[in-house]
């Protein structure tokens, strides 16, 4: 009952090697890959200038920014950023969560080759988490720090780590921070050369790992990683290009799921991202329910616990159920497996709402793969598969007595070292010389079990 989505079957080649490893490649062709994220903005501002790109709640309604407005604001902000001493060694650190201003600043920086480093807002808002923020500041050494509300983030901005660093805010109050409104009027600086210099190898952002097992590490994410990953997704999910997607989404932009996958999925396909200022947490989920009742999405992203809460809300409110499923093409979960009872309930509710099933699916990846490297794009009835390889990438699995490792190669894999130490930061755009210059790809190895790992030929030659 998902025939209306024109889904493509999985199509991979699996090669077993003499050393016991497996090499998997996708047989689906990879479509055109944008040179930089700014190309998407330029394209949609010209093609669909009045379509909503970003929106956030404002009073009882929404503050909406169209593609044409976004491009004008991005170029204006960029004209001020190029006059500051900013770049890979002095990125822009973003303290606050998802919002229109956050998105515009991010794109303005990327437009002229300045990376951003968004951090979890709790690092700033919870005093006990300030050491994590100090750690991030020491890693990045930012040249500019942004907080949407300078009063709300006053304690974080006052940390010694930001002494002498310009603060920027959309609500500066009496903090002394530069008012973002001042940057929304073009400075007169010519950004043509800076924009033209941005390419697939240019650093777009630095994303911090969760730090669940050690101090957070900074993962260097290039424009090519982001643009390649979106081309891979589009090749697997053709309905994305059939009509502009729309999401109401809470997933945080400091994380690769919300900030790289979802944000760029809208930008790459001329879609609309409505920022959900709720989340599946106590006291906040009611806001999510309100937002979903206002705007029907074509795609619904969430973690399994969020979908479980949503099922309960949909079962109790037929109007919400009908609105939620009225235009829905895909339900996408990640972070954990979706329980079978939640999956079955979503299908049952979809059929009750209109008789048409969305694709219920997932993907697997890491911050280092920008993030998707596996995706399930066939209809299934149970959550048993992470999917197949994304086009344009390869992976190997080596099986040894002490180690089971997965290696991934492709243009969406991080091409540079991960920042692991405060002592010395590597050159941010150093690409491993042994890899294909045409791919400009990186590779990483994930140890699935502890133990010494002697890399097999599949791991060492994965880019060959």
What features would you highlight for this structure?
Rossmann fold; AMP-dep_synth/lig_dom; ANL_N_sf; 464 residues; 15 helices; 5-stranded antiparallel sheet; AMP-binding_CS; 21 strands; AMP-binding protein
Structural overview:
- It is a single chain.
- This protein is α/β, with parallel strands linked by helices.
- It has a domain of 135 residues: 3-Layer(aba) Sandwich (Rossmann fold).
- Helix content is 31%, strand content 21%.
- The strands form 5 sheets. It has a 5-stranded antiparallel beta sheet, with no helix packed on it.
- The longest helix has 15 residues.
Shape: globular
Describe the sheet with the most strands.
5 strands, antiparallel
User: What is the CATH third-level topology name of the domain at 64-198?
Assistant: Rossmann fold
Radius of gyration: 22 Å
**Tally of separate helices:** 15
Catalogue the unreliable spans: 400-406, 415-464
Main CATH class of the domain at 64-198: Alpha Beta
Give the structural class: alpha/beta
Order of strands across the widest beta sheet? 1-2-19-20-21
Distance separating the two termini: 41 Å
Name the beta content range.
15-25%
Helix content: 25-40%
The tally of strands reads 21
> Whole-number average pLDDT?
85
CATH arch. level architecture of the domain at 64-198: 3-Layer(aba) Sandwich
Quick recap:
This protein is α/β, with parallel strands linked by helices and 464 residues long. It has helices spanning 37-47, 67-81, 100-111, 122-125, 130-140, 154-157, 192-196, 223-236, 239-242, 256-268, 285-294, 304-316, 318-325, 340-354, 457-460, and strands at residues 12-16, 22-26, 52-58, 61-66, 92-94, 116-118, 144-146, 166-169, 178-179, 203-208, 218-222, 246-249, 272-275, 299-302, 330-333, 359-365, 372-375, 388-389, 393-399, 404-410, 442-447. Helix content is 31%, strand content 21%.
């Amino acid at each position: 009952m998902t025939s209306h989505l024109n889904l493509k079957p999985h199509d991979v080649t699996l090669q077993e090697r003499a050393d016991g490893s497996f090499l998997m490649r996708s047989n689906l062709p990879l479509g055109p890959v944008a040179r930089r994220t700014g190309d998407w903005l330029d394209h949609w501002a010209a093609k669909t200038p009045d379509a909503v790109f970003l929106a956030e709640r404002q009073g009882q309604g929404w503050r909406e920014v169209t593609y044409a407005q976004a491009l004008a604001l991005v170029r204006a902000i960029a004209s001020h950023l190029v006059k500051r001493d900013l770049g890979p060694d002095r990125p822009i650190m973003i303290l606050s969560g998802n919002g229109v201003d956050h998105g515009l600043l991010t794109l303005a920086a990327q437009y002229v080759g300045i990376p951003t480093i968004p951090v979890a807002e709790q690092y700033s808002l919870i005093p006990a988490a300030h050491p994590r923020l100090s750690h991030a500041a020491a890693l990045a050494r930012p040249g500019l720090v942004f907080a949407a509300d300078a009063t709300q983030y006053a304690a974080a901005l006052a940390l010694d780590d930001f002494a002498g660093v310009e603060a920027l805010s959309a609500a500066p109050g009496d903090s002394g921070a530069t008012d973002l409104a001042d940057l929304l009027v073009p400075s007169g600086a010519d950004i043509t050369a800076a924009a033209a210099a941005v390419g697939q190898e240019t650093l777009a952002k630095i994303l911090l790992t969760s730090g669940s097992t050690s101090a957070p590490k900074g993962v260097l994410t290039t424009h090519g990683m982001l643009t390649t990953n979106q081309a891979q997704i589009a090749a697997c999910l053709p309905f994305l290009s059939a009509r502009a997607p729309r999401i109401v989404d809470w997933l945080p932009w400091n994380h690769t799921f919300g900030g790289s996958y979802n944000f760029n999925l809208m930008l790459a396909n001329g879609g609309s991202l409505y920022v959900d200022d709720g989340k599946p947490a106590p006291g906040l989920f009611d806001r999510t329910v309100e937002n979903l009742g206002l705007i029907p999405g074509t795609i619904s992203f969430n973690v399994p616990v969020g979908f479980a809460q949503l099922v309960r809300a949909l079962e109790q409110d037929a109007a919400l159920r009908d609105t939620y499923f009225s235009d829905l093409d895909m339900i996408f979960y990640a972070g954990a497996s979706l329980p079978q009872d939640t999956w079955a309930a979503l299908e049952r509710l979809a059929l009750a709402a209109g008789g048409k099933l969305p694709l219920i699916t997932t993907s697997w990846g890491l911050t280092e793969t920008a993030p998707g490297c596996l995706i399930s794009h066939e209809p299934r009835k149970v959550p048993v598969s992470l999917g197949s390889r994304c086009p344009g990438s390869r992976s190997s699995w080596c099986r040894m007595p002490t180690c089971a490792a997965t290696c991934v190669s492709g243009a969406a894999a991080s091409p540079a070292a991960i920042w692991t130490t405060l002592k010395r930061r590597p050159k941010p755009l150093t690409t491993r010389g042994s890899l294909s210059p045409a791919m400009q790809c990186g590779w990483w190895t994930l140890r699935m079990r502890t133990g010494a790992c002697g890399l097999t030929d599949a791991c060492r030659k994965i880019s060959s």
